[in-house]
From TrEMBL:
Protein name: Iron ABC transporter permease
Family membership noted in the UniProt record: Belongs to the binding-protein-dependent transport system permease family. FecCD subfamily.
Keyword Membrane appears in the UniProt entry: yes
Gene Ontology molecular function, alphabetical: transmembrane transporter activity
InterPro entries, A to Z: ABC_BtuC-like, ABC_transptr_permease_BtuC
Domain of life: Bacteria
GO BP, one annotated term: siderophore-iron import into cell
Membrane topology per record: Multi-pass membrane protein
Pfam families: FecCD (PF01032)
Length: 345
C-alpha cells in the first residue's frame, strides 16, 4: 500500500473546524461519564466518597469500597465502547455502507455461535479461549456475509450487505438456540452473556481485551489515510497508489479483532459502532484520520452512558447495557436508513 497522502485532494486533509474544542469537550464528557459510572448504581455514593475511594486508600468505608469495585467495570466499559466504535468505523469504510455495524452484519452473532459451541462441546468457560473462538466466528461470518453480498450484479452494495447480514444473523441465532436448548447448563451460563453486559468487567478482563484494542486501533489509524482514498471508489483509490485488496483485508482484520474480543468478554452488544461513527461523521466530516480516533471516544461515551442508565433504571438490580443500546440504536438505524436511502459512502 503506497503512500497516497500527497495525491489526495487537499480539501480532504484539512483539520475539521473547531477540532481541538470538540476533542476537549469529548474528553471532559468522558471524565464526567466515568465519574457517573463510579457514583451511580444500586447504591449511590457522593462526590467526596468517590474521591476517597479513588485517592485515599487508607479509608476503608463501605462507600469507598463500592467505588473501588466499580473502577474495573468502568475501565472495562470504556475499553469495550472504544473497540466497538472503531470497529464500526472500519466496517463502514471497508464496505462503503453507512449503516454497517458488527451487529447488523451478523459478525456479533457469528462470534456468539462459536463461543456457545465452545461452552457446549469443549467445556470452555474462561475468557482467553473464548476470545479466540469469538475471533474465529467473527472473521468467518464477516467473510461469508461479504461473499454473499458481493454476488450478482453491482457487487457488494449496501442493501445487499445488510440483507446478507440480517439473513446470516437469523440463521446463526437459530443454531445458537438449537445448541443451547437441550443443555440447561449452557443456557444458564450463556443467557446473561447473550444480552450483552459489562457487569462482569474486572481487571483481568481489561488486561485480556487491552492488547486487542491497542492492535486494532493502531491498524485503524495507520490505514485511515488510505481508507480516505477508498471512499472515492476502488478505481480512483488504485489510481492514487492504494492497494485496495490489501487495505480491505487489513482494515477488516482490525474490525474483526476489535469486535470479536469485545463480544467474547461482554456479549453481543449492538449499535454502538453505528451510533459512535455517525455522530463523529456528523460533527467532523468524512476524514477518517479524525473519525476513527474520535469514534473510539464516542463509543466509550455511548457504552458507559448506557451502562449507567441501565443501572439507574433497573435499580436495585440493573438493566443490561445491550438492552439499552438496542432500545436507543434501533430507532436511529431506521431513521438513518430512511434518510440515507442506504446510499454508499
Amino acid at each position: 500500500m503506497n503512500n497516497s497522502s500527497s495525491t489526495l485532494p487537499q480539501h480532504s486533509w484539512r483539520v475539521p473546524k473547531h477540532f481541538k474544542l470538540i476533542l476537549l469537550c469529548s474528553i471532559v464528557l468522558l471524565v464526567v461519564c466515568a465519574a457517573a459510572s463510579l457514583m451511580l448504581g444500586s447504591r449511590g455514593v457522593g462526590f467526596s466518597e468517590m474521591m476517597d475511594g479513588l485517592f485515599r486508600p487508607e479509608i476503608d468505608s463501605y462507600e469507598a469500597n463500592i467505588v473501588r469495585k466499580r473502577i474495573s467495570r468502568t475501565v472495562f466499559s470504556l475499553c469495550c465502547g472504544a473497540a466497538l466504535g472503531v470497529s464500526g468505523a472500519l466496517m463502514q469504510s471497508v464496505t462503503r455502507n453507512p449503516i454497517a455495524d458488527p451487529s447488523i452484519l451478523g459478525v456479533n452473532t457469528g462470534a456468539a455461535l462459536f463461543v456457545v459451541s465452545g461452552m457446549a462441546f469443549l467445556n470452555i468457560g474462561s475468557a482467553e479461549p473464548s476470545i479466540w473462538l469469538a475471533l474465529a466466528g467473527a472473521g468467518g461470518t464477516a467473510i461469508f456475509v461479504y461473499g454473499i453480498g458481493s454476488m450478482g450484479r453491482g457487487g457488494a452494495t449496501p442493501i445487499k450487505l445488510v440483507l446478507a447480514g440480517a439473513a446470516t444473523s437469523a440463521a446463526l441465532s437459530s443454531l445458537v438456540a438449537a445448541i443451547m436448548l437441550p443443555r440447561a447448563y449452557v443456557m444458564d451460563q450463556f443467557r446473561f452473556w447473550q444480552v450483552g453486559s459489562v457487569g462482569a468487567g474486572s481487571w483481568s478482563a481489561v488486561a485480556t481485551i487491552g492488547p486487542f484494542l491497542i492492535a486494532g486501533l493502531l491498524i485503524a489509524i495507520v490505514t485511515a489515510p488510505a481508507l480516505n482514498a477508498l471512499a472515492l471508489g476502488d478505481e480512483a483509490a488504485a489510481g492514487l497508489g492504494v492497494r485496495t485488496g490489501v487495505l480491505r483485508i487489513m482494515a477488516a482484520f482490525a474490525g474483526v479483532i476489535l469486535c470479536g474480543a469485545t463480544t467474547a468478554l461482554s456479549g453481543p452488544i449492538g449499535f454502538v459502532g453505528l451510533l459512535a461513527t455517525h455522530v463523529m461523521r456528523l460533527i467532523l466530516g468524512p476524514d477518517l484520520r479524525y473519525v476513527i480516533p474520535m469514534s473510539a471516544i464516542s463509543g466509550a461515551l455511548i457504552l458507559t452512558i448506557s451502562d449507567v442508565c441501565g443501572r439507574v433504571i433497573g435499580s436495585p438490580g440493573e438493566l443490561e447495557v445491550g438492552v439499552v443500546t438496542a432500545f436507543i440504536g434501533a430507532p436511529i438505524l431506521i431513521l438513518l436508513a430512511i434518510r440515507s436511502k442506504v446510499r454508499s459512502l
